[in-house]
Design goal:
The complex is a heterotrimer of chains A (about 300), B (about 450) and C (about 400). Chain A is an all-alpha fold and about 300 residues long. Chain A is built from eleven helices and two strands. In chain A, strands 1-2 form a two-stranded antiparallel sheet. In chain A, helix 2 packs across helix 8, helix 2 packs across helix 9 and helix 6 packs across helix 8. Chain B has two domains: about 100 residues, no CATH class; about 230 residues, no CATH class. Classes of the chains: A mainly alpha (about 300), B mainly alpha (about 450), C alpha/beta (about 400). Chains in contact: A-B, A-C, B-C.
């Protein structure tokens, strides 16, 4: 087959891409679970994380080349900065663009249009305030150094960092949704908002917190993404669409589905590019989206947030 | 102890209570809006000075103007709320006049004839620049908005990849006139390529619509967005067929040569304008008839309650595809017109941003409303051009999409039916707000993707 | 609870807005475009057309400020001494788009005092706007539209101050195949009009001198500003390049995408030669890719290294003062184009007309920052030397012209 020659190299890259997709997809899936709404502006939450990480790391690193323990510290700081920015933007988004519509009992179309408007507003504003040129985050460690090889495929430091950070965040989220009171609240609202309200769950607060959690993950993903690919005000569009595809692939509303979908999409994309030109990469992803929606719309893990985490 | 705490605490508590009250919240809303507007119209930053834009907009005296405006508007709306009834009664007479005058059919037709007369007589008096704007910016986009209005407004389907049909119209024109690297079986005059381009766009509507229109609203939006992207990617990648990003030139201008009538379009704008005007009038008449026809009523039924419509025996998929296809037709013609006028077509032109721009035009004007789509598109396309000639207070052309994005959010919160809404649509939304029924086909059912 | 603002009040606002709009419209449409203030000296306008907003705006801004600087300096008497007229500047935004270009062109033509237009910056916009300029007989001098079909339309008033795609591609091929002796080349374009043309010309020439080319399209981020180029694609692309065994990579695109590609290539273990074009010939490339990754990379450009030109220092500082940022790609060319036009106008004295500017440009020979500006009969620049630059340390260093290097 066309990809067997570099199968392992492509799979490693695919998993790395996939973890990023998974982190972003969780934002879509969580919000969809509680509101049945595609948060179109989540891509801008992702972008804001990238910028936050960039500014923080640029202040801390400048032009030095850190290594060792300070590298780890810087990565953690970067992730924290990205997550914080993402959380804040997601919170504001919910308050300004969605809550008024919920009050007015607006039709579903209005939510989607408001989301699109918010997305446009946010990324163009970022372009105005932070400049439209692409910038690169000062490296907290040597990104391209190969740590080890898997069947001849190099695994770079960067890919390990993504995998480790992503796994930690995903495990934390999984536990949060399954065990904590907040998680129970989210699942309750996702399953049946009215009954949850009767049970004493504060719907508004739960929805807000859901947005924030999604925002934390998306913002962190923005920083990790920016580390290797640079930060620019339009960076959210394509990863956002891909992450949404991943969420649908895994089963929208399903946390573990989002992770599975992300990894699968990442690997498939990369393997696919070995067979066709790189310029068809996005077509592969959208093709998967259409296929899933037509053939198995509930996704691979098909169950909703309400029924199982 | 407790007494002094009480005397200090009471005003603070009542202050906090006021902030949380409706009135206080509204003031907060106005202030937030004012600050955002100050930021939008303020100076820009760049990556080496990221706070320059913020400090330049918010920490300067100019922000006081905005805050003052916010407080003033808050006071005004408060007054209106309190004396609402009296003011309404007084203003009724004035504001009711246009709708009262236009109630009779004769009056409305009179207005349309007047508008048409102005549309025919005024443009030749304009400067070259404004004539160009009238065709390229306003005319083409009015056509696009009217077409998208059928999809989004009549049938309630959110199409985010609408520009794909524009592209197909343009490429069809290029193909049938022999400008593409692949040659057609026979060459046609670009004027006769018009029906071919329209047909190609409608066919594309059917092809793109049939598999995807089963999906419910949110998913349909994303899938159409994806399709819009895919069309652009395909056009860029298949260089041998479409000319790719470099594009193809040499598409001939329109020319008519039949039965003694001979006319050649050239670089001048007025002939294109009149052709566009003719087409727009035809389309408006046709779509108005469509609205009131059986097909139009089916659209309305689908939009208001899909399940009930199906129960009454309407074939949902067929009508949705029809809406898609009809909407695509105007886009196809617009694409061909533009390609023929500038004699050039390239894949780089057909961006997702353009699709969303057309959506903004329709929503601003009024979803489902023909006069709304026309007026909204014309107005929103005219404003950036006038600001180009007479720059206003902080507006920079590269910030246009910030304003459009904010406009969308504000419209959805305060006036989702648009500026010149169709009466039916307005009624749907008002009813939805009071909890009676849902305003569109995308109801709150919790099942994903597909309709059962 | 908050509800919608009652319809009637809205109607008042709407009515007011409509009336105000109508008033503004009538005022705007009937007013003639602003004419330069009358002064004792005649005032002529030089226009610039390019992307000043939208995703490509940075490129446009690099050129716009250069044109503006040239005009300011000419008015102050620095460049040409005393001039018998004053110059005004008219920038027009076409967003780099062929659909917006005719409108911008009309805005330029609407002013009768306009004697020349620098631009359009983009080839697509040029194709759409140039017929209008041609009809009006206005000289159009583009600093960056490199599509080789532009000079074949028989437009007498078309001029270009850079080498077109048909010169750069073959020169690059000659250099890589003959001088570097790399016979297997992976050629990648960023799916832009410029890059597709460049790689097309490169492919044809390289194949004809015995190289094996693998061509791939990898959509880039449109001058590092926007576009939906996929920044994640370079990992898989690098893997493909490595497994192809090709000895050199030729990338037609811009510095931010080339930086990502270079990092991915080195990360995948590719040790061959990396070559790009003038879009990558920028120190930002080295910052973004990192000095280790970028070391030894080459870039070609049909432009001289202006930092070796002492006159460039004052240009650089003047530009920075005016624009607030350092000059970038094609700034020098735009500056030279404007000055060439002004030199023609100076020779004509105080009786400048559009037609005379056009004929004057056909015989001009102006020594500018980047090159001596002189035109062939079809408007193409005379002399299309392509230079090769190499990354050494934190900067690009000029190695020499392709003709020199290959011949030696």
């Amino acid at each position: 087959m066309c990809f067997t020659h570099s199968f392992w190299a492509l799979t490693v890259q695919g998993l790395s891409d996939g973890f990023l997709y998974a982190l972003i997809a969780l934002g879509y899936t969580l919000v969809y679970g509680v509101l049945q709404l595609i948060n179109f502006a989540h891509s801008e939450v992702f972008m804001s994380g990238g910028f936050a990480g960039y500014f923080v790391l640029r202040t801390l690193i400048g032009s030095s080349s850190p290594h060792g323990a300070s590298s780890v510290g810087l990565v953690v700081v970067g992730i924290a900065a990205g997550a914080a920015a993402g959380g804040v933007v997601a919170f504001l988004l919910e308050r300004v663009a969605y809550r008024p519509l919920r009050r007015h009992n607006a039709p579903r179309l209005a939510f989607l249009i408001s989301a699109i408007g918010a997305s446009f507003f946010l990324y163009n504003l970022a372009g105005k305030e932070f400049g439209r040129d692409s910038v690169s985050i000062p490296a907290p460690f040597n990104l391209s150094g190969t740590v080890f090889t898997v069947f001849g495929a190099p695994v770079q430091t960067y890919e390990i960092v993504i995998a480790v950070s992503a796994v930690i965040m995903l495990v934390l989220l999984d536990r949060l949704v399954a065990v904590t009171r907040l998680g129970r609240g989210i699942r309750a609202v996702a399953q049946d908002a009215d009954t949850a309200a009767l049970m004493g769950v504060d719907i508004d607060r739960t929805i807000s917190q859901t947005f924030v959690i999604g925002g934390l993950l998306g913002g962190a993903a923005g920083f990790l993404f920016g580390l290797s690919s640079g930060v620019v005000y339009t960076m959210g569009f394509t990863p956002g669409l891909k992450a949404f595809t991943a969420a649908v692939l895994g089963g929208i509303g399903n946390v573990r589905g989002a992770v599975l979908g992300g990894l699968l999409l990442g690997v498939t994309e990369n393997l696919g590019v070995a067979c066709v030109q790189s310029s068809w990469r996005d077509v592969i992803a959208f093709g998967i989206l259409v296929l899933v929606l037509l053939v198995r719309p509930t996704g691979l893990l098909g169950e909703r947030l309400g029924r199982s985490a | 102890m407790s007494i002094s705490a009480g005397t200090v605490g009471a005003p603070i508590r009542s202050g906090l209570a006021w902030v949380r009250s409706d009135s206080g919240r509204r003031l907060g809303g106005w202030i937030l809006g004012a600050l955002i507007l100050a930021l939008m119209t303020g100076p820009s930053g760049n990556d080496s000075a990221p706070t320059a834009g913020f400090t330049g907009s918010l920490l300067q005296p100019r922000v006081l103007v905005f805050l003052g405006l916010a407080v003033a508007l808050w006071v005004l709306t408060n007054i209106r709320r309190r004396y609402g009834e009296r003011i309404r009664a007084a203003s009724d007479h004035v504001t009711g006049t246009p709708s009262r005058l236009l109630r009779t059919r004769r009056a409305r037709y009179g207005l349309y004839v007047a508008v048409l007369a102005v549309a025919i007589a005024y443009p030749p008096t304009l400067s070259g620049f404004w004539q160009e704007v009238l065709v390229d910016q306003i005319g083409v986009f009015v056509l696009l908005a009217v077409g998208l209005n059928v999809v989004v407004g009549y049938a309630g389907l959110l199409d985010l990849g609408y520009i794909a049909f524009f592209a197909i119209g343009a490429y069809s024109g290029a193909y049938w006139t022999g400008a593409l690297p692949v040659h057609p079986p026979f060459h046609v005059n670009p004027f006769w390529a018009i029906p071919l381009a329209v047909l190609a766009a409608m066919l594309a509507g059917v092809v793109l619509g049939a598999p995807t229109l089963r999906l419910r609203g949110d998913y349909l939006a994303i899938v159409t967005l994806g399709f819009g992207e895919i069309i652009q990617i395909v056009a860029t990648n298949l260089q041998g067929v479409t000319g790719g990003a470099e594009g193809v030139s040499g598409i001939p201008h329109f020319s008519v040569h039949l039965a003694g009538v001979k006319y050649q379009w050239g670089l001048s704008n007025l002939p294109y304008y009149y052709l566009l005007l003719g087409f727009v009038v035809v389309v408006l008449v046709a779509f108005r008839a469509l609205e009131n026809s059986r097909v139009g009523r089916a659209f309305t039924a689908i939009r208001e309650d899909e399940v009930a419509a199906e129960a009454v025996g309407i074939n949902i998929l067929k009508y949705k595809v029809m809406a898609f296809s009809i909407g695509a037709s105007t886009s196809g013609f617009a694409g061909l017109l533009e390609a023929s006028k500038i004699s050039f077509v390239s894949s780089q032109d057909f961006t997702v941003q353009m699709s969303i721009l057309v959506l903004v035009l329709v929503i601003f004007g009024g979803m489902g409303s023909l006069p709304g789509a026309v007026a909204g598109a014309a107005f929103l396309q005219w404003v950036p051009q006038i600001l180009r000639q007479h720059p206003l207070f902080g507006y920079q052309p590269q910030d246009l999409y910030i304003y459009l994005g904010a406009l969308l959010v504000v419209m959805m919160i305060f006036r989702p039916e648009g500026m010149i809404p169709s009466r039916r649509r307005r009624r749907e939304i008002v009813l939805a707000e009071t909890g009676v029924g849902t305003a569109d086909a995308i109801s709150g059912s919790s099942d994903p993707a597909v309709r059962p | 609870m908050t509800g919608t603002i009652p319809g009637r009040a809205r109607a008042v606002v709407r009515l007011g807005a409509i009336v105000a709009t109508a008033a503004l419209a009538l005022a705007a449409c009937s007013s003639s475009p602003s004419t330069p203030r009358a002064s004792s000296a005649k005032t002529y306008t030089i226009a610039y057309e390019g992307p000043l907003s939208g995703g490509n705006s940075q490129l446009g801004l690099f050129q716009k400020f250069a044109v503006q600087l040239a005009i300011n300096q000419a008015n102050a008497g620095t460049t040409f001494g005393h001039l018998p007229f004053k110059l005004a500047f008219l920038p027009e935004d076409d967003q780099g788009s062929p659909t917006q270009a005719p409108t911008a062109a009309q805005a330029v033509l609407g002013q009768s005092a306009t004697m020349a237009v620098i631009g359009p910056a983009f080839s697509g916009a040029s194709k759409a706007a140039d017929p209008l300029y041609n009809q009006a007989g206005l000289a159009m001098v583009t600093p960056s539209a490199t599509d080789p079909t532009l000079q074949t339309n028989g437009w007498k008033n078309f001029f270009r101050v850079v080498a077109d795609d048909d010169s750069q591609g073959p020169a690059d091929a000659q250099y890589i195949v003959k001088k570097l002796a790399d016979k297997t080349i992976y050629a990648i374009d960023d799916a832009s009009a410029y890059a597709q043309g460049l790689v097309g010309a490169f492919d044809t020439e390289a194949t004809s001198i015995g190289a094996k080319i693998t061509h791939e399209t990898a959509p880039g981020t449109t001058q590092c500003q926007a576009g939906t180029g996929n920044v994640q694609q370079y990992g898989a692309l690098a893997t493909k390049v490595k497994s192809s065994g090709d000895s050199a990579v030729f990338y037609a695109g811009y510095y931010c995408d080339f930086a990502l590609l270079a990092k991915a290539l080195r990360g995948a273990g590719f040790t061959g030669q990396m070559v790009s074009d003038d879009g990558s010939e920028s120190d930002t490339l080295i910052t973004q890719a990192g000095a280790t990754v970028a070391a030894g990379a080459l870039a070609s450009c049909a432009c001289q290294d202006i930092t070796q030109n002492s006159a460039a220092t004052s240009f650089n500082s003047g530009f920075k003062k005016l624009a607030g940022f350092a000059p970038g790609i094609y700034s020098g060319e735009a500056y030279d184009a404007t000055n060439a036009v002004i030199s023609v106008m100076k020779k004509l004295g105080s009786n400048v007309t559009r037609a005379k500017v056009v004929s004057g440009l056909h015989s001009v020979s102006y020594k500018g920052l980047t090159k001596t500006v002189a035109f062939q009969s079809d408007g193409n620049i005379s002399g299309n030397t392509v230079y090769i630059y190499k990354v050494e340390g934190a900067h690009f260093v000029q190695l020499g012209s392709v003709a020199q290097l290959v011949g030696s």
